[in-house]
What we know:
- Belongs to the CDS family.
- By secondary structure, this protein is an all-alpha fold.
- The protein has helices at 41-46, 58-72, 95-100, 111-131, 133-159, 165-202, 210-235, 241-266, 281-301, 308-336, 351-355, 358-373; strands spanning 270-272, 276-280.
- The protein is built from twelve helices and two strands, in the order H-H-H-H-H-H-H-H-E-E-H-H-H-H.
- A two-stranded antiparallel ribbon has the order 1-2.
- A hairpin with a 3-residue loop joins strand 1 and strand 2.
- It starts with 40 loop residues before the first helix and ends with a helix.
Amino acid sequence: xxxxxxxxxxxxxxxxxxxxxxxxxxxxxxxxxxxxxxxxxxxxxxxxxxxxxxxxxxxxxxxxxxxxxxxxxxxxxxxxxxxxxxxxxxxxxxxxxxxxxxxxxxxxxxxxxxxxxxxxxxxxxxxxxxxxxxxxxxxxxxxxxxxxxxxxxxxxxxxxxxxxxxxxxxxxxxxxxxxxxxxxxxxxxxxxxxxxxxxxxxxxxxxxxxxxxxxxxxxxxxxxxxxxxxxxxxxxxxxxxxxxxxxxxxxxxxxxxxxxxxxxxxxxxxxxxxxxxxxxxxxxxxxxxxxxxxxxxxxxxxxxxxxxxxxxxxxxxxxxxxxxxxxxxxxxxxxxxxxxxxxxxxxxxxxxxxxxxxxxxxxxxxxxxxxxxxxx
Length: 376
């Protein structure tokens, strides 16, 4: 669950307003025709750290250089802080007052749309989870198919990797159903058959890049449907299957929310700047604390025979796996050169942008449930 505001509030390190000292009397006036030669932008870039005394025609060039710098440093990914473009006109009478106004913190995305979509998804999940288990299996299968479509589409668009979607979609659905009906053995058999189907399906096309395409296909089969199968394995527990799935979802969401809230307010130290510049160490601490508290409450009140201290360990593990999953998909998106995997969910991106932290967390939570309270 890729949040865009783990880090410090935007605004730090941005270019400030143009110098309004000696040139303040020139507001609204065009530079005189007798202005000297326009300095080269490269020379100005080399001397930018030094204070520049504005000349009769200097402001226009300085604005032009600021504007170019803004274009070159524009954000590519969702979790980077956008820089505000510089004005291309001379400062007006109220510019000094505007520059003194405190900037409001921005969450970096459409929170209203994100919250609305999140609530809607939550209602669908809760209703299907506690009303009739097979309906929730259908929800998992739909999410898997859409996620595979997003992933294979981006691979084709950005890397020209042709991954066959049909065997992945059929095999991914079979994995989820087999995991729910036949347990881990059924999931592994379905995974093996899906990989084989990808290899055979790709043989109907030209042999060029065959190894590359089938490798990406097997990766997609493992990354999306196979990891999602562990949610079906949790649901299959007769005693408290829905409660296990609910605990898994709650802890992942709470971990992401804790990282978002703490990182946005207190984040200063980058966690992995080369992968996801928006995430901070303070945000990770928030994720751990929030998830541990939620884990203790869930194990004590939702899980049969669960103990609160088991929830502390569960929450700690969920915070770590969810963060790693988020960073993992950030690596994929950076390699592909995209911000989001899709646009299906307003304020969130695509389905894969919501599954990024859930998928790697599912097998971890399932295994800890088996260790702590049994398979059910």
